Each structure stands twice: as structure tokens, then as C-alpha cells.
Amino acid sequence: MGSYLSPPGEVYCPNEACANHTNQVPVGIAGAYASFGKTAIGNPRWRCSVCGKTFSRNTKATARQRDHHKNKIIFKLLVNKMPVRRFIEVTNIAPQTFYHRLAFFHRQCQAFAAHRERALTNLAIRRLYLGVDRQDYLVNWQVRKDKRNIQLSAIAAVDNEHGYCFGVHLNFDPSLDAAAIQAEVETNGDLHKPYPHRRFARHWLNTDHDEASSRSMATKRRNLSLSTAIDDTYAAALMRDDIESPDAPSPLERLPEYGMQIHGEYTMYGHFFFLKRLLGNVQKWRFFIDQDPGLRAACLAAFHDEIRGRTADAFYVRINKGLTVDERRHRYNNAKAVFEQAKAAHPGMKPQEVKRELIKERLAAMTTRGKWQDQWLDHPFPTMGEPDKAVACLTDLGDYDEDHKAWLYNKASLHGVDSFFNQVRRRLSLLVRPIHSKSNKGRIWNGYSPYNPGNVATVLDIMRTVHNYILPGKDGKTPAERLGLAQAPLDYEDIIYFS
Ligand SMILES: [Zn+2]
What we know:
This protein folds into three domains: 3-56, no CATH class; 66-123 and 452-499, no CATH class; 127-133 and 143-171 and 217-250 and 263-428. It contains 17 helices and 13 strands. It has helices at 19-22, 71-78, 84-91, 95-117, 178-188, 206-214, 226-238, 264-278, 293-302, 304-308, 325-345, 351-363, 402-411, 415-427, 453-470, 479-483, 492-496, and strands at 33-38, 44-48, 54-56, 125-139, 150-159, 165-170, 172-173, 260-261, 282-289, 312-319, 367-369, 374-378, 389-393. The strands form three sheets. Strands 6-5-4-9-10-13-12-11 form an eight-stranded mixed beta sheet, sandwiched between helices. The protein has a three-stranded antiparallel beta sheet with strand order 1-2-3, with no helix packed on it. Helix 8 packs parallel to helix 9 (293-302), helix 12 (351-363) packs across helix 13 (402-411) and helix 14 (415-427) crosses helix 15. The radius of gyration is 26 Å and the shape is globular. The two termini are 21 Å apart. Zinc ion (ZN) is lined by residues 13, 15, 18, 20-21, 48, 50-51, 53.
């Protein structure tokens, strides 16, 4: 997850039979190499003093691309929901050129993001209100005789004040060879060990998948009240083989055909430890996470010292999204009326104080839910985006006064991460919401879905950089500007030509 942040590697002799290669002697060491002019496109070239081989380094991002003047329009169309086939038609490029460009934009976005985000270790942030949630994606079947779907899930952290997405991580690793790992597992005794003790514990193996999917009970009830939905989530979690594992494969799903799917709980733990390493100078962390014991465990484990030191707190936030627009408006207007009434009854109070008092009233009437006796607050200030919201503090050590507590509950929201994920669905044709068709025995096929699971992570990374640096919000500013990582909105060309 964090590898993109490492500075680019040093250049040394590429000849594997040469001592300068074996010892990784970098260019710049006196006497090891001689400067040897430039390549046709202007990249520097050197000659190795040991073996005499010449080599160069590609410093020009768009080197060896024909049609690189089309990059900007291809990049813009990519994040404006152009389906791949239309793309190829409109921009008149070959299909393989499209996928090469996709990989190129990805490299550029990651290099650009890394260049800015290395500063996050020292950037002083007073308060971080981080919403953490997940989104599922569908990958179409490649082999016609096996029409099971591949479903992947990404976890993202977006802060509510600046809107910056600090990371979006998919439970998929394209660099692994599933067949090789399966073969090793069959000889190294992994299959007879409990999951956490295995050499390949974080990888989903076909044998495990078959076993897990045959036991699946993927029956979701719909249109529940928020409190029933919260209780159901606790109950379903208790049915899991491993309470922290969110994965529940069904017989209609399969593992990816290349690369490997990673167990959801490992992705969650990785995500929170990644955040801790990325952000080195945060005074107070406030996590607002979706109700899932795996997310809770990962958050509390990674930030255990900060929670004890009282510089971090975590809350479950649960939103009822099944409401119609009319129901949303109704709830919103009701809450507004209650607030206006309270304001009129206390003419001496500032609106913030009235809000605090109303939350304190609710704090006295919380409901206890689930095995861990979590105390849920029915949030008194719904918005149109979060029309019905319940919040539970996961780190209440009994040492905060009522005012402080009320203020933290008031801040609880998933709106930052929610709007990032909405943008993903709205702007990336590869990741639109799949359509269930009744005629297909529960299988799902989406004309726009990717066939290559690696492309899901690729476009998510691209979207993250575009969201953070290029697309301004209603205030005319990008999340990076609000956070202090940029002076103005950037242009697609700033990413394309970044080096
Ligand atoms: Zn050499």
C-alpha cells in the first residue's frame, strides 16, 4: 500500500553479470560510470566502467508514446464516464493503446501523489475527522464456461473537513501468482494450520473459497429500520467464522483469474496502519467508521497507543440510505423545526450551544446494542445526505465531560468518504453500480465492468489523485488546497507531464 511513496530507485548498471550491478553501485559514484551523451529523445546515457555497457534512464514521462497529444483528452474522458469502446472510437486509438495509457496515467498519478504526500509525515494537522467506509466492485467473467462473478471491495479514508482521500485500497494483489502459491500451500502444510498461523494467511485460496462459499448464507433483508439494521449487523457478525473477517463469498462468486484476492480483514488492518505511517503529525484523530467488527478491530489495533493517550477516538456511524427523497426531506425539516424551537426557547444561546444541548439530551437516552453493549445515539441533526443517522462511541473511557462528548458526536459523519465513493460511481464507467438481472440466475453481468481486476485498483488510484488535486468543490478549491498540499487546482497536464 505504501510502496508508491518510496523515492524512485537509484540507477545502476543493468548488466546482471557485472559487479556494478551486483553491488548496486549508483550513477554519480566517482569512476564507476562515464557520461555517454543522450538518447534520441533526450534522456541521459552512461557507460559502465566495469563492463562497458551503455544504458540510459527514462526521465521524460511521455517518451516513446505516439499520439501523446491525445493524452489529455483520453485522461479527461476516463474520469468522465466514457466506456472503453466509445473511447477507442472517439479518440481513434487501438485498444491496447488505451490499456497502455491507463497504466501510464496510473504511474503518473502515483508518482505525483507520492511527491506531494511524502510531506504528510511532517504536515501539522490539528484535527482530522476521518470517515472510513467500503465499496464493492464487480469484475466480469473472462472464461465463458465459468460465469461466476468476482467481487472486490475497496476501503477508503476521506476526511470530512478537507475532503482529502488519504488512501483507497482494494483487496487484490496483481503481483501474486495464485497457481504457484496454491502449489506451495499443498506441500508446506498450510492447509492444516489455523488461518493466522499460515505462511499465506492473507491470501484467498481456491480451496478456502469453495469451502466458505458452500456455507454462505447471503440473504440480505431490505428496507429495515435503522435500529433493526444495526442489530442485524451485530447478529450477522457473530455468525462469522472469524469475527473480524468481512468476506462472505457466495457460490455465485469466484476468485480472480490472475493475481490474488486478499482477505478483507488484512486489507483493513493494512489500511489503518498505512494511515498511521502516512500521517506523522496529527494532534487529534477522530475516526468515523462503518459498523463492522473488522474495521473496529483494525482501527483500535493500529491506533491503540493514541487511543490510550486520548489523542484518538473512534465511532461507528450508521446511515439509513434506503429512504426516498420525500422521507429525507421530511426528516430534515422535522429536525430543523426541533432545532428552531430549541433556539427560540433559549434566546441567549448561540446556535452551536443549542446544538450541543440537544445532543446532550440524546446522550442521556442512548440505546445499548450488540454483544459489546455499544451505546448508540440517535443523531438529532440529519442532513439530506445522512437523513437517518446513529452513532456509537467505541473508545469511551469515561473521562470526557458531557460538552466534549456532545461535540464529538456532533461531528460524526461519513459525508467525505461517501462523496468520494459517489464520484467513483458517477465518473468511472468501469466501476458503475452493477445491475441484477432476474433472467441470469443471480449472476450479474455489466457491460461496463472490467474483465481485469487489476484495472479496478488502477482506476481507483487515478480517481483518488484527480479528486484530491484536480476537481474543485463548491468553494472553488480542491481537497489538496484545503489541506495545504497545493496552491491551486491542478490541470490534467500537470499530472501527465510530471517527472
Ligand atoms: Zn556494468
